[in-house]
Design goal:
Helix content is 41%, strand content 15%. It has 15 helices and 15 strands. The chain has a 7-stranded parallel β-sheet with strand order 5-4-3-6-7-8-9, covered by helices on one side. Helix 4 links the parallel strand 8 and strand 9. The longest helix is centred in the first third of the chain and has 34 residues.
Length: 411
Amino acid sequence: MNTTFLLYIDPGTGSMLFSILIGAAATLFFLAKAAFIKIKLFFSGKKDGSGIVDASYKPYVIYNEGNQYWNVFKPVVEEFEKRKLPLAYYTSSKTDPVFENKYEYVKAEYIGEGNAAFAKLNMLSAGFLLMTTPGLQVYQLKRSKNVKHYSHVLHMPNDATTYRLFGLDYFDSVLLTGDYQKADIQTLEEMRGINKKELVTVGCSYLDVLSEKIKSLPEEENHIFTVLVSPSWGEVGVLKKYGEKLLDPLSKTGWKIIVRPHPQSKKSEADMLSRLENRYKDNPNVEWDYNRDNIHSMKRADIMISDFSGIIFDYTFLCNKPVMYVNTDMDLRPYDAYDLNKQLWQFAILEKMGIKLEEKDFADIKNVIQNASDSPVLAAERKTAKETAWMNEGKAGEKIVDYMISKTANA
């Protein structure tokens, strides 16, 4: 009697297994490559006082996980090029803007995505590795014994503790946008009994880039009053939580309404976005913005509506215009900030420089916005926030490279 057994693997499990297999294959590939290089060097007799010369060693390395972080690294890359210093630039994007430039001293290389990229980085040999990717030594991204210094550069001027748990714990240094970010990181170090990191205030490199770009944009002809809706993503993001309740009354104001979803929404909330886009497809005043840079929409907007998204600070610092925020009760439990048991700076300052918008205001939102005009008090609070969170304005690239050189020279 023949018996046939059928094995069913659900799509989620299959995807996970496939990811594990790909990661294992990539790891074996780079291990084999590293072993080959060591054998080749051994028989060539190229040694120094400590043993075999490591031909793969690079003094300075940047890892960019996606195009959205190019503006963070652009000033650093250009500073290396200006100083005629070699820089290895690894990226997980085939369309990284770095490839559009013909740098002489910056060598860019696509190293794959996800596990393939981590396998490469986990066996890296370098003096200094700079990245925006959090979670070092927490998930797949591990410290290589041949990397002397791991540094995380913040890509936001708001609280440094809004990363997922332990996001910054195992770096050697964190490069800050403002001095205020130091205290909370140091508190977590004491609470968790982990090594103290070097906390260096360098400024905000991507804001330096956007500041120059936005100045070059022309003023809009035949401008009509414009509202920019630019939320975060997830269950408590404005679009996810309120959707039509907010956009319906806005769409009836006769104003231009620009909706700029968080980049992650396109991946994680595609059905929700598709539903909303279809709902307003026949309204010429409702516009959707998915451009990489947010400056075009910010330049046109007279006021922004958001939640806890970091774009609030981009808008106020670059445009110096009023913001309205919807209190969506952000759940801090998955984040480092939860362990601090205190109000975040970004929420405290938002209450001072922003205008609170409640759900009961949605039905009469045109009058609410018209009556919520700017004031000297709000302008003064925006100025204070900018001075606090965006230090060394225009100099972040220079400050970052100075620090990288100082750490490698002293290694």
